[in-house]
Amino acid sequence: MSTYLTVPEVAQMFQICEQTVRNRVNGGKWPAWRDGRQMRFGPEDIEAIRRKGTQGPAPDKAQRRTRNRQLRETRIFAQ
């Protein structure tokens, strides 16, 4: 790993899209520093992001259907 990572490198590392990385930094959820207009992530930033935890990629349609069906069944049995 190079000393400082770019947005595309961090996005690939956490398997999320680049815009999500930018949104989390701009929203104050993730640490980063700016080199002009570029965002950079040092080793300490990556470690802080890992400690906070991340969500992986969104589930695909089949996974969402299965999860929603399980939730509906759980609510039916809970009534």
Outline the structure in words:
With 79 residues, the chain is mainly alpha-helical. It has one domain (7-78). It is built from four helices and two strands. It has helices at residues 7-14, 18-26, 43-52, 61-78; strands spanning 33-35, 38-40. The chain has a two-stranded antiparallel ribbon. Strand 1 and strand 2 (38-40) form a beta hairpin. Helix 1 crosses helix 2. The mean pLDDT is 87.
Total E-strand runs: 2
Count of helical regions: 4
**Class by alpha and beta content:** mainly alpha
Give the integer mean of the pLDDT values. 87
> Radius of gyration, Cα only, in angstroms?
17 Å
Overall domain count: 1
Broad shape: elongated
Distance between the termini: 52 Å
Largest sheet: 2 strands, antiparallel
What are the segments in which pLDDT stays under 50 over at least 5 consecutive residues? Answer: none
The SSE order reads HHEEHH
Helix content: 55-70%
Across the major sheet, the strand order is 1-2
